[in-house]
Design a protein that fits this description.
Radius of gyration of chain A: 17 Å
Strand order of the largest sheet of chain B: 2-3-1-4
CATH class of chain A: Alpha Beta
Distance between the termini of chain A: 24 Å
Order of helices and strands of chain B: HHEHEHHEHEHHHH
CATH superfamily of chain A: P-loop containing nucleotide triphosphate hydrolases
Number of helices of chain A: 7
Helix content of chain B: over 70%
Shape of chain B: elongated
Number of domains of chain B: 2
Helix content of chain A: 25-40%
Structural class of chain A: alpha/beta
Strand content of chain A: 25-35%
Structural class of chain B: alpha+beta
Order of helices and strands of chain A: EEEHEEHEHHHEHEHEE
CATH architecture of chain A: 3-Layer(aba) Sandwich
Oligomer: heterodimer
Radius of gyration of chain B: 31 Å
Largest sheet of chain B: 4 strands, antiparallel
Number of helices of chain B: 10
Strand order of the largest sheet of chain A: 6-7-8-3-9-10
Number of domains of chain A: 1
Number of strands of chain B: 4
Chain lengths: 224, 294
């Protein structure tokens, strides 16, 4: 599903974000990406959704070499990838329903499809009763659930999450983790960048550890 | 794609209007003022054109004929001139008619004319041209013809006149283009701010997999609407003001030829509406292109 071969990423200011990364993530895997701040976790995720291109090496997503992907095809790659951010990136002047509908509309879904799909994902994350609420009236955990709902509304093959439990208390964090496991069981490949030792240790999933741009550990049932 | 989602684009554009009402109002007002100035230029130049045509229709070539010209020669000459390209009309003024005109024009010197024996004035042909630019070449050719004593057409004045009208024409076009450029810049700056204000939505759309054009259309439609609204307001103001001013001018300078037919001002309206839409669209195209590259 996701392969990286000898990938380097050096930013224009000469900061080396990633160095000689070789990795293979299979379809349906749940992978934690751990490491200190500045280790290259966010760049790793960016390479997958083509938020950036590698300086050297190849990134292959579902058989497509994304370095060679023409800009006009990037949107179609992204339709197969859901992204959940630590800072949510919600539209605060739109309701819960509209936040999800907006994303679906952006990729050309019909009104009927939008209605059905929003209902389905809101049920899944347990926010059906708050569909008319504006996001600033939701708790942190609920906002994160809304983000996840938006990211999976299009039923992507891959879900990337960048510190989704970063700002949440342990109970809420575990609730979010349960939700992600549930999505993973349904077949979605999940890569989660995290600092949350408790969650990583409790989950017992594959852990890829980054430090100063290098993979220093890749353990199929790792701990933080 | 555009027609499929036109409702969505329009809704998003209007939503952006609603959220940034103050900013859009300021932009529309600035552009309206510019369009009004453009409109004033257009109306003034249309009226100037109207006035110049009126004056130019009075330009003519006077051909003084030799006294010994026979009536057959005269008739040939007249037909020859009338058939030339650019000639509008030819009028024959006999020696007697010329003398009567002189008497009429200078009635107070009647006594002097009574002293003069006979009629010293030559017969003449008065030629009007379709285009004042052709007067000189027509006059030169006629001067070489048989039976012609002398040709007069206001040589130095005509040249200056043509220079002046050319200058006014191109000057007007240059100023209008500058004003249009200014309005493109204003709209493009406003759109730039609205693009910035909506960068979150743009980022989300882009990460969800929206195509560039899908993201761009609401902004382009927004810019288009700004231009259109500004143009319509400018037109209403111009039309209302113009006819009030024309009435006032009529009362104080009744002989000044001014356009008073609403239909004749229609081109100004069409030009401003068209320019408004294009300017709005182009203005937003410039800033959206800069901010939404991928």
């Amino acid at each position: 599903m996701i392969r990286m071969f000898h990938v380097d990423k050096i930013y224009p200011n000469r900061i080396v974000a990633l160095k000689d990364i070789n990795v293979h993530i299979k379809k349906g895997e749940f992978v934690f990406l751990v490491g200190p701040t500045g280790a290259g976790k966010s760049t790793f995720l960016k390479l997958i959704y083509r938020g950036t291109v590698p300086t050297k090496g190849q990134v292959i997503i579902d058989g497509i070499n994304i370095s060679r992907l023409k800009p006009k095809y990037v949107p179609y790659l992204r339709r197969n990838i859901g992204i959940v951010f630590q800072d949510f990136k919600l539209l605060y002047d739109r309701t819960v329903y509209e936040n999800i509908a907006f994303g679906l509309k952006a990729i050309g879904a019909t009104n009927f499809e939008i209605k059905e799909q929003v209902k389905k994902v809101l049920n899944l994350v347990g926010l059906e009763h708050k569909k008319k609420t504006k996001p600033h009236l939701l708790s942190g955990g609920e906002q994160q659930k809304l983000c996840i709902a938006r990211a999976i509304a299009n039923e992507p093959m891959i879900l990337l999450t960048d510190e989704p439990t970063g700002n949440l208390d342990p109970d809420t964090s575990w609730e979010i983790m349960q939700l992600l496991f549930h999505i993973n069981i349904r077949g979605t490949t999940i890569i989660m960048a995290s600092h949350d030792k408790l969650m990583v240790d409790r989950a017992k999933k594959r852990v890829i550890r980054l430090d100063q741009g290098h993979i220093i550990e890749d353990n199929p049932r790792g701990i933080y | 794609m555009i027609f499929e989602n036109i409702g969505f684009y329009l809704r998003e554009a209007l939503l952006s209007f609603k959220r940034n009402l103050l900013m859009y109002t300021a932009s529309i007002m600035s552009v309206t003022v510019i369009f009004i100035i453009v409109g004033i230029f257009l109306i003034v130049s249309l009226n100037l054109d109207f006035l110049l045509k009126d004056l130019e229709s009075q330009f003519e070539i006077v051909i003084y004929l030799k006294d010994n010209i026979s009536s057959a020669e005269l008739s040939n000459l007249k037909n020859d001139i009338a058939s030339r390209e650019g000639v509008k009309e030819v009028t024959y003024i006999s020696k007697e008619e010329a003398f009567q005109r002189l008497l009429k024009n200078f009635e107070e010197y009647k006594d002097i004319f009574e002293v003069i024996e006979g009629n010293p004035l030559p017969a003449s042909l008065e030629v009007k041209a379709n285009d004042p630019g052709m007067i000189e070449s027509i006059a030169t050719e006629i001067g070489k013809m048989k039976g012609v004593e002398e040709v007069e057409y206001g040589k130095g004045f005509l040249e200056k006149w043509l220079n002046l009208t050319t200058f006014l024409h191109w000057g007007g076009i240059a100023i209008t283009l500058l004003l249009i450029l200014a309005s493109i810049l204003i709209i493009s700056n406003i759109v730039k701010i609205t693009v910035y204000a909506r960068r979150n939505e743009i980022e989300i759309m882009s990460l969800m997999g929206a195509t560039r054009w899908f993201i761009k259309w609401p902004f382009l439609i927004g810019g288009f609407l700004q231009g259109l609204i500004a143009a319509v307001i400018a037109l209403v103001v111009l039309y209302e003001a113009y006819f009030v001013i024309v009435d006032q001018v009529r009362q104080s300078i009744p002989f000044l030829p001014l356009i008073s037919d609403k239909m004749e001002l229609l081109p100004v309206g069409l030009v401003i509406i068209l320019v408004g839409c294009i300017v709005g669209f182009l203005g937003s195209m410039i800033s959206v292109g800069k901010y939404i590259s991928e």
